[in-house]
Amino acid sequence: MGDAAETLERLDGLHLGTGWFLTWIDGVETVYMDERMTEASFDQYLVVIEELMRTASMPRPVLYEVTAPSVMNASARRRLSNLLNKYRTNIGKNTIAYALVTPSTAVRGVLTALFWVSPPPYPYKVCATTREAFEWLAGRTPELDSMGTDSRYATRRAQLMSRLS
Predict the structure, then answer these.
(1) What domains, with CATH codes, occur in the chain?
(2) In sequence order, what are the beta bridge partners of 29?
(3) Helices 146-161 and 130-138 meet at what angle, rounded to 10?
(4) What would the 3-class secondary structure string for 103-133 be?
(5) What's the predicted TM-score (pTM) here?
(6) Parallel, antiparallel, or unpaired for β 60-66 and 95-101?
(7) Is the Cβ–Cβ distance between 15 and 143 less than 8 Å?
(8) Cβ pair 153, 30 in contact under 8 A
(9) Are 92 and 121 in contact (CB under 8 A)?
């Protein structure tokens, strides 16, 4: 995609940039991030989520899958934290539950401790797999079919992977 990869795509509820996408699967807001994310694409991601945080008016479950701990440097984490604090009230009203998936045991430990010290205004869980995350989200969203949603997410992720670079 070259330079076009740095240009935000918006197709049928899909937001796509280098190393990341945001889409909805069975009413779950799903975000995927990997090591291909650039500073420019992170800026695009922030634009998208700020719009969502500002305008959200319907509670929904949220799943983030972050495959590499290096996705966000200190500056990026600070900018994201500032944005989350700015919209904390609206996020709290419109997030049924939040699951973060990362394969790194160390990152899961750090995030669990961080959320324990500074809990978000909604139920949360840090998970090792998307299956675990969707099962946990289904416990807070009874209409969610965790196995079916996990399968549809995996299919969608596979379809989008080649478009993230």
Answers:
(1) 2-164 (3.30.750.24)
(2) 24, 62
(3) 140
(4) CCHHHHHHHHHHHHHCCCCCCEEEECCHHHH
(5) 0.87
(6) parallel
(7) no
(8) yes
(9) yes
